[in-house]
Amino acid sequence: MKSYELKYGCNPHQKPAEIRAVSGELPFTIVNGNPGYINFLDALNSWQLVKELKTVLNMPAAASFKHVSPAGAAIGLPLSGDLKKAYFTDDIELSSLASAYARARGADRMSSFGDWAALSDTVDVATAKLLKKEVSDGVIAPGYAPEALEILKQKKGGKYNIIQMDPGFVPQKQEKRIIYGIEFVQGKNDVVPGLEHLKNIVTENKDLPAQAQRDMIIAMITLKYTQSNSVCYCLDGQVIGCGAGQQSRIHCTRLAGDKADLWYLKQHPQVLDLKFKQGLGRPDRDNAIDLYLRNDATEHELALLNDVLEQVPKRLSTNEKAAWLKKMQDVTLGSDAFFPFRDNIDRAYHSGVKYIVQPGGSVREEIVIKACNEYVMVMALTGLRLFHH
After folding, report:
1. Which residues have CB under 8 Å from 230's CB, separation 6+?
2. pLDDT tens, 263-314?
3. Bridge partner list, 182
4. What ranges do the domains of the chain cover?
5. 191-265+325-381 maps to which CATH number?
6. Which homologous superfamily is 3-165 in?
7. What is the pLDDT of residues 153-180, one digit of tens each?
8. Is 296 helix (H, G, I), strand (E, B) or coil?
9. Where in the sequence numbering do the catalytic residues fall?
10. What's the pTM?
Protein backbone atom coordinates (compact mmCIF):
# COMPACT_ATOMS: atom_id res chain seq x y z
CA MET A 1 0.00 0.00 0.00
CA LYS A 2 1.55 3.27 -1.14
CA SER A 3 -1.18 5.60 0.20
CA TYR A 4 -4.22 5.56 2.44
CA GLU A 5 -7.26 7.77 2.08
CA LEU A 6 -8.48 9.32 5.31
CA LYS A 7 -12.02 10.32 6.26
CA TYR A 8 -10.75 13.87 6.88
CA GLY A 9 -7.76 15.78 8.24
CA CYS A 10 -7.42 17.36 11.69
CA ASN A 11 -11.04 18.55 11.48
CA PRO A 12 -14.08 17.24 9.57
CA HIS A 13 -14.07 20.17 7.13
CA GLN A 14 -10.44 19.49 6.08
CA LYS A 15 -10.93 17.33 3.00
CA PRO A 16 -9.55 15.58 1.08
CA ALA A 17 -7.05 13.88 3.40
CA GLU A 18 -4.51 11.17 2.71
CA ILE A 19 -1.22 9.76 3.91
CA ARG A 20 1.39 8.67 1.39
CA ALA A 21 4.65 6.72 1.48
CA VAL A 22 7.62 8.92 0.55
CA SER A 23 9.05 5.95 -1.33
CA GLY A 24 8.02 2.32 -1.64
CA GLU A 25 5.17 0.99 0.49
CA LEU A 26 3.73 2.33 3.73
CA PRO A 27 5.61 0.57 6.58
CA PHE A 28 2.53 -0.63 8.44
CA THR A 29 -0.62 -2.70 8.07
CA ILE A 30 -4.04 -1.57 9.25
CA VAL A 31 -5.22 -4.73 10.97
CA ASN A 32 -8.55 -3.33 12.14
CA GLY A 33 -10.53 -0.11 12.14
CA ASN A 34 -10.19 3.07 10.11
CA PRO A 35 -7.52 5.32 11.72
CA GLY A 36 -7.73 9.06 11.10
CA TYR A 37 -5.24 11.85 10.53
CA ILE A 38 -4.58 12.57 14.22
CA ASN A 39 -4.54 8.83 14.96
CA PHE A 40 -1.66 8.41 12.55
CA LEU A 41 0.21 11.41 14.00
CA ASP A 42 -0.08 9.82 17.45
CA ALA A 43 0.72 6.34 16.17
CA LEU A 44 3.90 7.24 14.29
CA ASN A 45 5.26 9.55 17.01
CA SER A 46 4.48 7.14 19.82
CA TRP A 47 5.97 4.21 17.92
CA GLN A 48 9.31 5.99 17.61
CA LEU A 49 9.29 6.70 21.36
CA VAL A 50 8.72 3.09 22.45
CA LYS A 51 11.09 1.72 19.83
CA GLU A 52 13.90 3.94 21.13
CA LEU A 53 13.16 3.11 24.77
CA LYS A 54 13.33 -0.61 23.94
CA THR A 55 16.53 -0.16 21.95
CA VAL A 56 18.38 1.79 24.67
CA LEU A 57 17.04 0.10 27.83
CA ASN A 58 16.37 -3.39 26.43
CA MET A 59 13.00 -3.68 28.14
CA PRO A 60 9.40 -3.68 26.86
CA ALA A 61 8.13 -0.11 26.61
CA ALA A 62 4.79 1.60 26.22
CA ALA A 63 3.40 5.07 25.66
CA SER A 64 -0.02 6.63 26.03
CA PHE A 65 -0.46 9.48 23.52
CA LYS A 66 -3.00 12.30 23.23
CA HIS A 67 -2.85 15.08 20.64
CA VAL A 68 0.68 14.22 19.49
CA SER A 69 2.26 14.29 22.96
CA PRO A 70 2.71 11.52 25.53
CA ALA A 71 0.46 11.58 28.58
CA GLY A 72 2.75 8.85 29.88
CA ALA A 73 5.58 6.53 28.91
CA ALA A 74 7.25 3.67 30.77
CA ILE A 75 9.24 0.46 30.67
CA GLY A 76 7.94 -2.85 31.95
CA LEU A 77 9.05 -2.89 35.57
CA PRO A 78 6.80 -4.77 38.06
CA LEU A 79 4.17 -2.73 39.89
CA SER A 80 3.85 -2.48 43.65
CA GLY A 81 0.54 -3.42 45.25
CA ASP A 82 -0.38 0.24 45.74
CA LEU A 83 0.42 1.10 42.12
CA LYS A 84 -1.68 -1.82 40.90
CA LYS A 85 -4.59 -0.51 42.94
CA ALA A 86 -4.06 3.10 41.83
CA TYR A 87 -3.93 1.96 38.20
CA PHE A 88 -7.02 -0.29 38.56
CA THR A 89 -4.98 -3.37 37.61
CA ASP A 90 -5.06 -5.33 40.87
CA ASP A 91 -7.45 -7.82 39.26
CA ILE A 92 -5.22 -8.51 36.22
CA GLU A 93 -2.15 -10.71 35.87
CA LEU A 94 0.36 -8.35 34.27
CA SER A 95 3.11 -9.34 31.85
CA SER A 96 6.14 -7.09 31.48
CA LEU A 97 4.56 -5.39 28.44
CA ALA A 98 1.24 -4.99 30.25
CA SER A 99 3.09 -3.45 33.21
CA ALA A 100 4.69 -0.95 30.85
CA TYR A 101 1.30 0.12 29.49
CA ALA A 102 -0.29 0.19 32.96
CA ARG A 103 2.48 2.57 34.04
CA ALA A 104 2.20 4.72 30.90
CA ARG A 105 -1.57 4.94 31.25
CA GLY A 106 -1.35 5.47 35.01
CA ALA A 107 0.89 8.53 34.80
CA ASP A 108 -2.06 10.80 34.00
CA ARG A 109 -5.21 8.74 33.62
CA MET A 110 -7.47 11.70 32.93
CA SER A 111 -5.30 12.88 30.04
CA SER A 112 -5.03 9.31 28.75
CA PHE A 113 -8.80 9.04 28.29
CA GLY A 114 -9.28 8.08 24.62
CA ASP A 115 -5.54 7.64 24.09
CA TRP A 116 -3.45 6.07 21.38
CA ALA A 117 -1.34 3.23 22.81
CA ALA A 118 2.11 2.32 21.52
CA LEU A 119 3.80 -0.95 22.48
CA SER A 120 7.36 -1.97 21.67
CA ASP A 121 6.75 -5.73 21.62
CA THR A 122 4.25 -8.22 20.24
CA VAL A 123 1.00 -7.66 22.14
CA ASP A 124 0.22 -10.54 24.46
CA VAL A 125 -3.08 -11.55 26.04
CA ALA A 126 -2.38 -9.75 29.32
CA THR A 127 -1.78 -6.44 27.53
CA ALA A 128 -4.82 -6.93 25.29
CA LYS A 129 -7.03 -7.56 28.32
CA LEU A 130 -5.74 -4.39 29.94
CA LEU A 131 -6.32 -2.35 26.78
CA LYS A 132 -9.83 -3.76 26.45
CA LYS A 133 -10.75 -2.31 29.86
CA GLU A 134 -9.58 1.21 29.00
CA VAL A 135 -11.15 3.92 26.81
CA SER A 136 -8.67 4.03 23.94
CA ASP A 137 -8.79 4.98 20.25
CA GLY A 138 -6.17 2.61 18.94
CA VAL A 139 -2.87 0.81 19.27
CA ILE A 140 0.36 0.39 17.30
CA ALA A 141 2.76 -2.50 17.85
CA PRO A 142 5.12 -4.72 15.84
CA GLY A 143 2.79 -7.70 16.17
CA TYR A 144 -0.15 -9.30 17.96
CA ALA A 145 -0.59 -12.77 19.42
CA PRO A 146 -3.67 -14.38 17.77
CA GLU A 147 -5.74 -14.50 20.98
CA ALA A 148 -4.70 -10.95 21.89
CA LEU A 149 -5.78 -9.72 18.46
CA GLU A 150 -9.21 -11.29 18.86
CA ILE A 151 -9.63 -9.55 22.22
CA LEU A 152 -8.72 -6.16 20.74
CA LYS A 153 -11.00 -6.60 17.74
CA GLN A 154 -13.95 -6.69 20.16
CA LYS A 155 -13.32 -3.11 21.34
CA LYS A 156 -15.54 -0.25 20.18
CA GLY A 157 -18.02 -2.59 18.55
CA GLY A 158 -15.31 -4.04 16.33
CA LYS A 159 -14.04 -0.63 15.19
CA TYR A 160 -10.95 -0.36 17.42
CA ASN A 161 -7.96 0.90 15.42
CA ILE A 162 -5.14 -1.63 15.30
CA ILE A 163 -1.92 -0.92 13.39
CA GLN A 164 0.93 -3.36 12.92
CA MET A 165 4.21 -1.55 12.36
CA ASP A 166 7.20 -2.89 10.48
CA PRO A 167 9.92 -2.81 13.21
CA GLY A 168 12.66 -2.84 10.60
CA PHE A 169 11.48 0.28 8.79
CA VAL A 170 14.11 3.01 8.47
CA PRO A 171 12.79 6.43 7.37
CA GLN A 172 14.62 8.76 5.02
CA LYS A 173 17.15 11.12 6.54
CA GLN A 174 15.28 14.20 5.34
CA GLU A 175 11.87 15.37 6.55
CA LYS A 176 9.50 17.71 4.72
CA ARG A 177 6.25 19.45 5.57
CA ILE A 178 4.17 22.13 3.90
CA ILE A 179 2.70 25.01 5.90
CA TYR A 180 0.70 27.77 4.20
CA GLY A 181 2.05 26.74 0.83
CA ILE A 182 5.67 26.87 2.01
CA GLU A 183 7.79 23.72 2.13
CA PHE A 184 10.00 23.15 5.18
CA VAL A 185 12.93 20.73 4.93
CA GLN A 186 15.16 19.45 7.75
CA GLY A 187 17.29 16.49 8.68
CA LYS A 188 15.47 13.87 10.77
CA ASN A 189 16.20 14.02 14.50
CA ASP A 190 17.84 10.59 14.59
CA VAL A 191 19.97 11.12 17.71
CA VAL A 192 18.86 8.56 20.31
CA PRO A 193 19.54 9.77 23.89
CA GLY A 194 21.60 7.31 25.89
CA LEU A 195 24.15 6.89 28.67
CA GLU A 196 26.79 8.72 26.64
CA HIS A 197 24.78 11.93 27.09
CA LEU A 198 24.95 11.77 30.89
CA LYS A 199 28.69 12.16 31.44
CA ASN A 200 28.84 15.92 31.99
CA ILE A 201 27.72 16.26 35.61
CA VAL A 202 28.17 19.89 36.64
CA THR A 203 26.93 19.85 40.25
CA GLU A 204 28.91 19.24 43.42
CA ASN A 205 26.90 16.07 43.98
CA LYS A 206 27.98 13.66 41.25
CA ASP A 207 26.38 10.49 42.62
CA LEU A 208 24.19 9.31 39.74
CA PRO A 209 22.92 5.76 40.42
CA ALA A 210 21.84 3.38 37.67
CA GLN A 211 18.12 3.85 38.29
CA ALA A 212 18.48 7.64 37.95
CA GLN A 213 20.41 7.20 34.70
CA ARG A 214 17.61 4.96 33.44
CA ASP A 215 14.98 7.54 34.38
CA MET A 216 17.00 10.30 32.71
CA ILE A 217 16.98 8.30 29.48
CA ILE A 218 13.22 7.77 29.75
CA ALA A 219 12.77 11.51 30.31
CA MET A 220 14.95 12.48 27.34
CA ILE A 221 13.36 10.06 24.88
CA THR A 222 9.88 11.09 26.07
CA LEU A 223 10.75 14.77 25.62
CA LYS A 224 12.04 14.07 22.11
CA TYR A 225 8.46 13.21 21.10
CA THR A 226 6.62 15.80 23.22
CA GLN A 227 5.39 19.10 21.77
CA SER A 228 7.77 21.84 22.99
CA ASN A 229 8.33 23.57 25.32
CA SER A 230 8.27 20.47 27.49
CA VAL A 231 9.40 19.20 30.88
CA CYS A 232 9.09 15.66 32.20
CA TYR A 233 9.23 14.13 35.70
CA CYS A 234 10.17 10.43 35.97
CA LEU A 235 10.35 7.90 38.79
CA ASP A 236 10.80 4.14 38.96
CA GLY A 237 10.96 3.58 35.21
CA GLN A 238 8.04 5.74 34.18
CA VAL A 239 6.86 9.25 33.45
CA ILE A 240 4.86 10.65 36.39
CA GLY A 241 4.18 14.12 34.99
CA CYS A 242 4.60 15.63 31.54
CA GLY A 243 4.11 19.32 30.74
CA ALA A 244 3.84 19.85 27.00
CA GLY A 245 3.49 22.78 24.63
CA GLN A 246 3.90 25.66 27.07
CA GLN A 247 5.34 29.00 26.02
CA SER A 248 7.48 29.42 29.16
CA ARG A 249 9.76 26.91 30.83
CA ILE A 250 8.51 27.56 34.35
CA HIS A 251 4.92 26.88 33.26
CA CYS A 252 6.11 23.52 31.88
CA THR A 253 7.82 22.75 35.17
CA ARG A 254 4.79 23.75 37.24
CA LEU A 255 2.33 21.85 35.07
CA ALA A 256 4.40 18.67 35.02
CA GLY A 257 5.14 19.03 38.75
CA ASP A 258 1.46 19.40 39.58
CA LYS A 259 0.74 16.24 37.58
CA ALA A 260 3.52 14.39 39.39
CA ASP A 261 2.11 15.52 42.75
CA LEU A 262 -1.35 14.30 41.76
CA TRP A 263 0.10 10.98 40.62
CA TYR A 264 1.63 10.47 44.06
CA LEU A 265 -1.42 11.69 45.97
CA LYS A 266 -3.49 9.03 44.20
CA GLN A 267 -1.42 6.46 46.11
CA HIS A 268 -2.36 7.92 49.50
CA PRO A 269 -4.03 5.21 51.64
CA GLN A 270 -7.15 7.32 52.01
CA VAL A 271 -7.50 7.59 48.23
CA LEU A 272 -6.80 3.90 47.67
CA ASP A 273 -9.55 3.09 50.19
CA LEU A 274 -12.26 5.07 48.40
CA LYS A 275 -15.34 2.85 47.91
CA PHE A 276 -17.00 3.39 44.55
CA LYS A 277 -20.58 2.49 43.82
CA GLN A 278 -21.20 -0.77 42.00
CA GLY A 279 -20.79 -0.64 38.24
CA LEU A 280 -18.97 2.70 38.10
CA GLY A 281 -16.69 2.85 35.06
CA ARG A 282 -12.99 3.63 35.14
CA PRO A 283 -13.31 7.15 33.65
CA ASP A 284 -15.90 8.06 36.29
CA ARG A 285 -13.60 6.75 39.01
CA ASP A 286 -10.73 8.81 37.58
CA ASN A 287 -12.91 11.93 37.58
CA ALA A 288 -14.10 11.26 41.14
CA ILE A 289 -10.55 10.85 42.47
CA ASP A 290 -9.47 14.04 40.73
CA LEU A 291 -12.43 15.90 42.24
CA TYR A 292 -11.75 14.43 45.68
CA LEU A 293 -8.17 15.73 45.58
CA ARG A 294 -8.76 19.13 43.99
CA ASN A 295 -8.16 22.17 46.20
CA ASP A 296 -10.42 24.42 44.12
CA ALA A 297 -13.51 22.18 44.00
CA THR A 298 -16.75 24.01 44.79
CA GLU A 299 -19.36 22.74 47.25
CA HIS A 300 -21.63 21.96 44.32
CA GLU A 301 -18.92 19.87 42.66
CA LEU A 302 -18.07 18.06 45.88
CA ALA A 303 -21.73 17.13 46.31
CA LEU A 304 -21.37 15.09 43.12
CA LEU A 305 -19.12 12.70 45.01
CA ASN A 306 -22.24 11.38 46.76
CA ASP A 307 -23.37 9.99 43.38
CA VAL A 308 -20.23 7.89 42.86
CA LEU A 309 -18.92 6.96 46.32
CA GLU A 310 -20.58 4.64 48.83
CA GLN A 311 -19.47 7.06 51.52
CA VAL A 312 -17.58 10.33 51.12
CA PRO A 313 -14.73 10.41 53.64
CA LYS A 314 -13.22 13.58 55.02
CA ARG A 315 -10.99 15.10 52.34
CA LEU A 316 -7.25 15.38 52.82
CA SER A 317 -6.19 18.70 54.32
CA THR A 318 -3.47 20.86 52.81
CA ASN A 319 -1.12 19.79 55.61
CA GLU A 320 -1.92 16.10 55.09
CA LYS A 321 -1.22 16.41 51.39
CA ALA A 322 2.07 18.23 52.05
CA ALA A 323 3.15 15.56 54.54
CA TRP A 324 2.41 12.80 52.04
CA LEU A 325 4.19 14.56 49.17
CA LYS A 326 7.36 14.87 51.27
CA LYS A 327 7.68 11.09 50.90
CA MET A 328 8.05 11.42 47.12
CA GLN A 329 11.83 11.36 46.65
CA ASP A 330 14.56 10.61 44.10
CA VAL A 331 12.49 11.97 41.22
CA THR A 332 14.22 12.77 37.91
CA LEU A 333 13.41 15.94 35.96
CA GLY A 334 14.16 16.32 32.27
CA SER A 335 13.84 19.41 30.10
CA ASP A 336 13.94 19.63 26.29
CA ALA A 337 15.91 22.92 26.45
CA PHE A 338 17.93 24.85 29.02
CA PHE A 339 16.51 26.32 32.21
CA PRO A 340 16.69 30.12 31.92
CA PHE A 341 16.09 30.80 35.64
CA ARG A 342 16.46 29.00 38.97
CA ASP A 343 12.69 29.14 39.59
CA ASN A 344 12.39 25.83 37.73
CA ILE A 345 14.80 24.20 40.18
CA ASP A 346 12.95 25.64 43.17
CA ARG A 347 9.63 24.27 41.88
CA ALA A 348 11.16 20.88 41.05
CA TYR A 349 12.50 20.50 44.58
CA HIS A 350 8.94 20.61 45.97
CA SER A 351 8.07 17.52 43.91
CA GLY A 352 10.92 15.40 45.22
CA VAL A 353 13.36 16.01 42.36
CA LYS A 354 16.93 14.93 43.07
CA TYR A 355 18.22 14.32 39.53
CA ILE A 356 18.05 16.73 36.59
CA VAL A 357 18.96 16.26 32.95
CA GLN A 358 18.89 19.15 30.48
CA PRO A 359 20.86 20.44 27.48
CA GLY A 360 22.49 23.40 29.23
CA GLY A 361 23.57 26.59 27.49
CA SER A 362 21.77 29.27 29.49
CA VAL A 363 23.58 32.55 30.15
CA ARG A 364 22.45 32.03 33.77
CA GLU A 365 23.86 28.48 33.94
CA GLU A 366 25.87 29.18 37.07
CA ILE A 367 22.77 30.43 38.90
CA VAL A 368 20.88 27.25 37.96
CA ILE A 369 23.83 25.08 39.06
CA LYS A 370 24.02 26.98 42.35
CA ALA A 371 20.34 26.30 42.99
CA CYS A 372 20.91 22.57 42.36
CA ASN A 373 23.85 22.59 44.78
CA GLU A 374 21.70 24.22 47.47
CA TYR A 375 19.29 21.30 47.20
CA VAL A 376 22.12 18.71 46.86
CA MET A 377 20.77 17.70 43.44
CA VAL A 378 22.68 16.00 40.65
CA MET A 379 22.48 17.69 37.26
CA ALA A 380 23.80 16.40 33.94
CA LEU A 381 24.14 18.69 30.92
CA THR A 382 23.71 16.81 27.65
CA GLY A 383 24.35 19.51 25.04
CA LEU A 384 21.40 17.94 23.20
CA ARG A 385 18.32 20.12 22.65
CA LEU A 386 15.16 18.09 22.02
CA PHE A 387 12.61 20.52 20.59
CA HIS A 388 9.71 18.86 18.78
CA HIS A 389 7.20 20.81 16.72
Report:
1. 69, 223, 242, 243, 244, 245, 246, 252, 335, 336, 388
2. 999 999 999 999 999 999 999 999 999 999 998 889 898 999 999 999 999 9
3. 179
4. 3-165, 191-265+325-381, 274-312
5. 3.40.140.20
6. AICAR transformylase, duplication domain (3.40.140.20)
7. 999 999 999 999 999 999 999 999 999 9
8. coil
9. 66-67, 229, 389
10. 0.96
